[in-house]
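Marked as duplicate of an earlier ticket. Keeping the data here for the record.
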Amino acid sequence: MLENKPRFAPERTFQHEVQSRVEQRLAALGRSRYGGLRIYVKTALLLLWSGASYGALMAWASHWWQVVPLCISLGLSLAAIGFNVTHDGNHGAFSGSRFVNRAMGGMLDLLGGSSYVWRWKHNVFHHSYPNVEGLDEDIDFGALCRMSRHQPHFRHQRLQHIYMWILYCMIVPKWHLYDDFAAILQGRLGDNSFPRPRGGELAQFLVGKLVFFSIAFAIPLLFHSLGQVLLVYFLVAVVQGLNLAIVFQLAHSNEEADSFSAKHPQEIAQQEWAVHQVETTVNFARKSRLLTWYVGGLNHQIEHHLFPRLSHVHLPAISDIVEQVCREHGVRYSEHPSFWRAVASHYGLLRSMGQVPLSALGEAS
């Protein structure tokens, strides 16, 4: 639950205009907001990719030069399922059927996460107030990393532009083994509280964890040694985690995106909600069809934040409309032409936020 939430400006002119123009575009293309046949085919391909990688690791790979590429393949495929399938499902954008959406979103539970916790963390806290310190947990790394000018600075953060890339690799193991359990036991995500799951939601969480640990550890231990199983799990998790962390960080944690603090609600109150979504978000590599396919349209993050319940398969078709309306209304529309330019911008933010703030230097002098 969002505690002491600030309010955006009541103005909705930009939001109404962009919504109207996008609806016209979708109607002209004859598309609903759901994924349709394209997303079902894509889901089947991604599941086949991950299943083949897992099966080959279990039954075929016996040398390091076979194991390592298959670990990379499995890690990439699992990240792709997260980007494309569970993300759309948990946003209710996969299908017009609530059951199908819950099933596709619930696939996250089988991958070691929790769809229940994710919906609160991502759909509610992040999408409501992106880049607002104290409300958006995605920019809250505690003392490990300073992602916003509103966060306190610690001496060791001067090296965060170096060590954070290593820590990104550990995000998935931490997620699997600690984060979800801690969140549910405490009923909190960062500074925000949320209701603990009960009944069917709790059963889904527990069964999902049991199935995941069986797939990741118990079944492989029937055929391989403990050391081999742990090493493969670690390699797969590193690849998966690095992919997930980088793609999600590139959209908001960069030099171009605005950031705010829940402690200064007057700044937020000056913005229309839709304008806040655009100016705290940055697109990257919009013209890369391969990257767009792999990351589930998350490189069109501005469009996703304006229309979170629209399937990712439609985002490229509306991006030019969204950009045009932004220009007409004087709303800053930011993008990086390539993936690597976006990575460089994230690196730049890590480095600049790691430096001692000028205010602190002034106090010290």
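See parent ticket for discussion. The chain has 16 helices and six strands.
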